[in-house]
Amino acid sequence: MKIFQKKKTCCSCEKDSLEQAIDLQKSSARIKVLGSGCAKCTALENNTKEALKLLGKQESVEHITDFAQIASYGVMSTPALVVDNQVVTFGKVLSCDEIKEILLKVGF
Fold first, then answer.
1. What sequence ranges are listed for the domain Thioredoxin-like fold (predicted)?
2. Tens digits of per-residue pLDDT, 8-49?
3. Cβ(15)–Cβ(7) under 8 Å?
4. Measuring CA to CA, how many Å separate 33 from each of 6, 23, 69, 70?
5. What structural domains and CATH numbers belong to the chain?
6. Which residues have CB under 8 Å from 88's CB, separation 6+?
């Protein structure tokens, strides 16, 4: 019985898919939430939108669920918050106040 079939290619480890993920990084919103769409990821997205509203900013928040794109940021633990293509936090849900603090530190 063969459990593992020897594949000639990997689904997302090919050079082309990594390059596509990096290109998508550069061409989208300034603020991104990286995660699978679980409750914690959604909570971080909602807290981020609320923090932006409290700061009086009209910025959109993009929620990225594609694992190739998430991996292109070097994130292994979600949810993660990305501002201007820099990962500012990962692995936990931040409160609105914590997100406001981060946004002000990066000059948003």
1. 30-103
2. 544 555 556 667 666 665 556 789 999 998 999 999 999 999
3. no
4. 35, 17, 11, 9
5. 15-100 (3.40.30.10)
6. 81, 82, 102, 106
Looking at the annotation, which residues are catalytic? 38, 41
| pLDDT per residue as tens digits for the range 40-99 | 999 999 999 999 999 999 999 999 999 999 999 999 999 999 999 999 999 999 999 999
Nearest to 72 by CA among 10, 37, 20: 20
Give 33's DSSP letter. Answer: E
* Distance of alpha carbon 63 from alpha carbon 86, whole angstroms: 15
How many residues can be counted in the chain? 108
